[in-house]
Amino acid sequence: MRLASRKPVRNLQPGRVVDELRKFFTVFDAACLRVQVEPLPRQGDSRIALAGLWNDDPSLIHQAVINAVLAMIDSGPLYLA
Fold it and tell me: Fewer CB near the terminus (10 Å): N or C of the chain?
């Protein structure tokens, strides 16, 4: 997933920016959970995720994180219109 902006965020209504961030976080959380990466709740406009809680094999942990990134890319772009 890419966040593409057609116009600067400062020109958008605050409610619209919040809605777009909420969409992005929803897609991020779903992409992580599909591949057993745990999204952690945070305040503000950032997200973080944790991998490896259920597996001790480092190669599988790395693959889970890569799979989460690929799942977000496959979700398509989000546009701030």
Answer: C
